[in-house]
Design goal:
The structure is a homodimer. Chain A is about 35% helix and about 20% strand. By secondary structure, chain A is α/β, with parallel strands linked by helices. The mean pLDDT of chain A is about 95.
Amino acid sequence: MTSSTTEPIKITSKEQAEWFLNQYDTFLFDCDGVLWLGTHLLPRTKEILNYLTELGKKLIFVTNNSTKSRLTYTKKFASFGINVTEDQIFTSGYASAVYVRDFLKLQPGKDKIWIFGEAGIGEELATMGFESLGGIDTRLDEPFDATTSPFLQNGLDDDVKCVIAGLDTKVNYHRLAITLQYLRKTESVHFVGTNVDSTFPQKGMILPGAGSMVESIATSSGRRPSYCGKPNANMLNTIISAKNLERSKCCMVGDRLNTDMKFGVEGKLGGTLLVLSGIETEERALEINEAYPRPKYYIDTLGDIFDLTH
Amino acid sequence: MTSSTTEPIKITSKEQAEWFLNQYDTFLFDCDGVLWLGTHLLPRTKEILNYLTELGKKLIFVTNNSTKSRLTYTKKFASFGINVTEDQIFTSGYASAVYVRDFLKLQPGKDKIWIFGEAGIGEELATMGFESLGGIDTRLDEPFDATTSPFLQNGLDDDVKCVIAGLDTKVNYHRLAITLQYLRKTESVHFVGTNVDSTFPQKGMILPGAGSMVESIATSSGRRPSYCGKPNANMLNTIISAKNLERSKCCMVGDRLNTDMKFGVEGKLGGTLLVLSGIETEERALEINEAYPRPKYYIDTLGDIFDLTH
């Protein structure tokens, strides 16, 4: 099973922090709950990222948020005064696009993708040369009517070879109905889910996540999607191959046991660090559970590593 | 298992038709696919219903459609020139309301119900004296914003003791998000699903059904609903008790194996008749399958019984 048998170590001293950092040359960070909470940067985030860069570490940012493209993410980092390039960022939308191109072998310029989701997915597909339909097309904001929907007027588009579904806060019956028609059209239309997260935290609330929408589509279509985000191996394989990494020298840093820690442990990365600034508690970090592994290390906040080493 | 072992009998002669009718004093009919297809009445529907009434049979109409109340259904029957009273009609919305009142023992005038669904549910609750929230409230048509939603401004309503979820073609993030807040509030808020159907046919298309929406909410909340419509026993118990029926003298007539036929067989009704005017084929009617039972009888259309006996 995925549960690690050794007791998680809480990093509480300078020596532990330095020993922790020395083991890895690459750190993969989840973003929300680790670096920031929504629009609020967590203390010492900038300082620890700069320090790791000074130490010559490679930094990679891995998020299951498919609503923003990697380019849009660089702007979010920049708004916090953190300079990160697009090639350091991996989103579940980007991982889905890579999966469509490299694993499903769809052809840019020929095959099209139907999107149930927000801007981040279509933008990543476009940079690879794929034409996509659906997604943020405002004609989908209109109430569904089978006789007038512009997406049905001339029949379904035969060039659509895949449906990618993720979080869509503009979910409506029109989007659900047309997505279903593509999945029912033929089994040869692939079904990809950006990420399995059933909820996500926002402003102190727990809101419906990508997984809850993908499961609705899975139920109506009677089909199962291939999921691409954490903890799925598709996401890690994309990163390892793009950045030419040695797994044993990588550490995954995140705030969720069932995605981030599972991702690091099942991906056989050298280490995992759980931060308690997001949704998990110390009690949960130490608890042995069949559903997800325990972290190798844990700490209250990522910034504590900066404080301990300075 | 639910699979019946005897071969389904196709009714093809006057003798068979008369023998079939003589066995039962009550006929329970599914509506769409049996009596009509959408807004198009099937041939001889009026004639066979009149004939059964002349023979002294009790007629009951059982639909998993929760979007219309029983009163609204009487108007649909009237539009086809068929005179049916409200007490002959059982919808999954009505069954859900009965379940809330009689099984969950919620108190009209005191306990409230949050609705994810269309008008039929709230109207049935209102006739029982229950106050409901959500549903067709047009303020839910506005985009979701946690800081401005009128459903969150003064906190959640502590009098809400149950969520009923069903088909809602006005599904949006606002409705999904507030429904989730009530289900997360406390386990003591009950979770009822009107019906499990993942899709339904309309104008030659297969569209997302109640089950696909309820499963989305089940995924985000991590909770399982109690389903009330066919084939669930809640629906049949409501009917049997309201109409004081003897199960062995009842025959279920429907167009779906996995809801109507399962409903009749698991409910231990005397007979089941599958009509092939809806979504099933003769091949499927005869096939032995673990997931649903075979009918006792089948026929191309309900109207054929009239033709055979006249």
